[in-house]
From TrEMBL, chain A:
Top-level taxon of origin: Bacteria
Keywords (A to Z) from UniProt: ATP-binding, Ligase, Nucleotide-binding, Protein biosynthesis
Name of this protein: Aspartyl/glutamyl-tRNA(Asn/Gln) amidotransferase subunit C
Family per record: Belongs to the GatC family.
Function: Allows the formation of correctly charged Asn-tRNA(Asn) or Gln-tRNA(Gln) through the transamidation of misacylated Asp-tRNA(Asn) or Glu-tRNA(Gln) in organisms which lack either or both of asparaginyl-tRNA or glutaminyl-tRNA synthetases. The reaction takes place in the presence of glutamine and ATP through an activated phospho-Asp-tRNA(Asn) or phospho-Glu-tRNA(Gln).
Organism: Candidatus Magasanikbacteria bacterium RIFCSPHIGHO2_01_FULL_33_34
Subunit structure, interactors included: Heterotrimer of A, B and C subunits.
GO function terms (MF aspect): asparaginyl-tRNA synthase (glutamine-hydrolyzing) activity; ATP binding; glutaminyl-tRNA synthase (glutamine-hydrolyzing) activity
GO biological process annotation, one example: regulation of translational fidelity
SUPFAM superfamilies: Glu-tRNAGln amidotransferase C subunit (SSF141000)
From TrEMBL, chain B:
Record-stated family: Belongs to the amidase family. GatA subfamily.
UniProt-listed Pfam families: Amidase
UniProt xrefs under InterPro entries: Amidase, Amidase_CS, Amidase_dom, AS_sf, GatA
GO MF term list: ATP binding; glutaminyl-tRNA synthase (glutamine-hydrolyzing) activity; transferase activity
Name of encoding gene: gatA
Keywords: ATP-binding, Ligase, Nucleotide-binding, Protein biosynthesis, Transferase
Lineage: Bacteria, Candidatus Magasanikiibacteriota
Catalysis performed (reactions): L-glutamyl-tRNA(Gln) + L-glutamine + ATP + H2O = L-glutaminyl-tRNA(Gln) + L-glutamate + ADP + phosphate + H(+)
Domain called Amidase: residue spans: 24-465
GO CC, one annotated term: glutamyl-tRNA(Gln) amidotransferase complex
A Gene Ontology biological process term: translation
Entry function: Allows the formation of correctly charged Gln-tRNA(Gln) through the transamidation of misacylated Glu-tRNA(Gln) in organisms which lack glutaminyl-tRNA synthetase. The reaction takes place in the presence of glutamine and ATP through an activated gamma-phospho-Glu-tRNA(Gln).
EC assignment: 6.3.5.7
Quaternary state and interactors: Heterotrimer of A, B and C subunits.
Annotated protein name in UniProt: Glutamyl-tRNA(Gln) amidotransferase subunit A
Length: 99, 477
């Protein structure tokens, strides 16, 4: 019955940027297979000519004025204080591109 | 009666008549939290110092006659909702040290009235769960039986109200996260229509379903809080501009002549607890005796709600949770390169269930599967919405049980993922359709566990939902 192999789980985990242990891969392979087997019951519903629902409010084209709101300098300080790693007021990240 | 046990209505009256102060109620709540939180684990963070300071401010406001509905009333907030300068973890370790610099819109509205923020309540991490066992800060225990779950995801909010650690709470409901724990803990909880209350400042889960609402001790209290937090917000473009009614005034309208639908599918579910079935059927008879017309109706796509829910929600989830990567805020794992910072921060900072949802969603949205899963679920969602539209042409409201069983034991469903997902079987269809619904406690089982009655209304008819809830509450008393 296992629809999702460990290899597929590894591929999905990589897309989702999640490091999984071997036992987690086994577990999710089994559990996701059960879940996708279950949701397959939707196949019995005839949805020909049915438009998908993306939202339920019926609102369309909601606009607001395109004006720049200047953030309070205290808020800016607090946001910067949340950076896990920084140099002065700049966010520090590891190298993005390989050499 | 102890001050922490008061409802909003009772506290307002006592504060206005100067029988006690905001400081007195706040201290009574903090005392109760100290006495009980170790056992129940309803709060992740308690703000004792700032709460006392806010109580002083509220007493000053009252002294100078600046009095609003919630001035001097202590409340709690689900930890997945941002509160200014107050730690907000969402019950996930990836945000263990996160302190938002702003309040969510709904919280801002409440605090502007001089309500007192006591602390942040435990929940399933980022709203993922129906038992509160997916919190990285330990499960919440049910105040009615400490061996049982509080329900989830807003278990801490429901338990904090049920156990009188606060007067009311603000929580979030994506597919039952307010109503299901409210029912397990024996308190009142409202999921508003999608778009009625602003979601700005809420840690997002499934953007097309997320809502924010109150958990209170009575329906009258719920009407007060919902009136304050509802309304359009420029910062949430999905909020509607419709007028917000004076809910408290609607409560006293007679329910005589209302047509109440009872959907047959909700009573044919496998594994439905027979005691709950009997209690709810008796309640329906009570409603009839109050002058309502009971009509048997059908919502034929009910059984597809859970599969639709578990495709749409994890899909939107997996996308929303992409922002939690340990780079700009939150806890960053030790790693040699950028890729490993992402994968390790997320591996260490999310519990098993959150990872499971991210995996389900990523798979459902991945190339080749999008049409088969996400788009298919969105199409069946349309049919579920149409079920409700059709039925509300025939009846004014629907009543159902909130849950197929009372609160289950801790650990009982932990290894059976699908059975845990099915705990939301009665609360997810209305969430998918975006219509308002509320759980009110009606009776207890022989074991003393609360049972909730679920009232569902047409879009933006929260007032009518509360009107029936209030009549039933009065009848019960």
């Amino acid at each position: 019955m296992s629809k999702l192999t460990v290899e597929e789980i590894e591929m999905v985990a990589d897309l989702a940027r999640l490091e999984l242990s071997d036992s987690e891969k086994e577990m999710y392979s089994k559990q996701l297979s059960v879940i996708f087997d279950y949701v397959d019951m939707l196949d019995e519903v005839n949805t020909v000519d049915i438009v998908e629902t993306c939202q339920v409010t019926g609102l369309e084209d909601v606009f607001r004025d395109d004006v720049v709101e200047v953030s309070d300098s205290e808020v800016v300080k607090k946001l910067i204080a949340q950076f896990p790693d920084k140099v002065d007021n700049l966010l520090k990240v590891k190298q993005v591109f390989d050499n | 009666m102890l001050l922490n046990e008061l409802t909003i209505t009772q506290a307002r009256e006592g504060l206005d008549k100067k029988k006690f102060s905001a400081m007195d109620i706040t201290k009574a709540c903090l005392h109760r939290i100290k006495e009980r939180n170790e056992k129940i684990n309803a709060f992740i963070t308690v703000f004792e110092e700032t709460a006392l300071h806010e109580a002083q401010i509220a007493d000053d406001m009252i002294a100078r006659g600046e009095i609003y509905d919630l001035t001097g009333i202590p409340f709690s907030v689900k930890d997945a909702i941002c509160t200014k300068d107050s730690r907000s973890t969402g019950a996930g370790k990836i945000l263990d040290d996160y302190v938002p610099p702003y309040d969510a819109t709904v919280i801002k509205k409440i605090r502007k009235q001089g309500a007192i923020l006591l602390g942040k309540t435990n929940c399933d991490a980022f709203g993922h769960g129906a038992s509160n066992e997916n919190s990285m800060y330990g499960p919440v225990r049910n105040p009615h039986d400490l061996e049982r779950v509080s329900g989830g995801s807003s278990g801490g909010s429901a338990a904090s109200v049920a156990d009188n650690m606060c007067v009311f709470s603000i929580a979030e409901d994506t597919g039952g996260s307010i109503r299901q724990p409210a029912s397990f803990c024996g308190v009142v909880g409202l999921r508003p229509s999608y778009g009625r209350n602003s979601r700005y400042g809420i840690m997002p889960m499934a953007s097309s379903l997320d809502t924010v609402g109150p958990i209170t001790k009575t329906v009258a209290d719920l009407a007060v809080v919902q009136r304050i937090i509802a309304g359009h917000d420029i910062k949430d473009s999905t909020t509607v501009t419709n007028n917000v009614p004076e809910y408290s005034q609607l409560l006293h309208k007679s329910i005589e002549g209302l047509k109440i639908g009872v959907p047959k599918e909700y009573f044919e579910i496998d594994g439905m607890d027979s005691e709950i079935k009997t209690i709810i059927k008796n309640k329906i008879k009570n409603i009839e005796s109050l002058g309502c017309e009971i009509v048997s109706v059908s919502l034929p796509h009910t059984k597809y709600a859970i599969p639709v829910y578990y495709l749409i929600v994890p899909s939107e989830d997996s996308s929303n949770l992409g922002r939690l990567d340990g780079i700009r805020y939150g806890v960053q794992a030790e790693a040699q390169n950028l890729h490993d910072i992402y994968t390790k921060s997320r591996a260490q900072g999310f519990p098993e269930e959150v990872k499971r949802r991210i995996m389900i969603g990523t798979y459902a949205l991945s190339s080749g599967y999008y049409d088969a899963y996400y788009r298919k679920a969105q199409k069946v969602r349309t049919l579920i919405c149409q079920d409700f539209e059709r039925v509300f042409e025939q009846v004014d409201l629907l009543v159902t049980p909130t849950n197929p069983s009372p609160a289950f034991k801790l650990g009982e469903k932990k290894d059976d993922v699908l059975s845990m997902y099915l705990a939301d079987v009665f609360v997810s269809p209305s969430a998918i359709a975006g219509v308002p619904s509320m759980s009110i406690p009606v009776e207890k089982t022989k074991k003393g566990l609360p049972v909730g009655l679920h009232i569902i209304g047409p879009r933006l008819f929260e007032g009518r939902v509360m009107q029936l809830g209030y009549a039933i509450e009065k009848f019960n008393n």
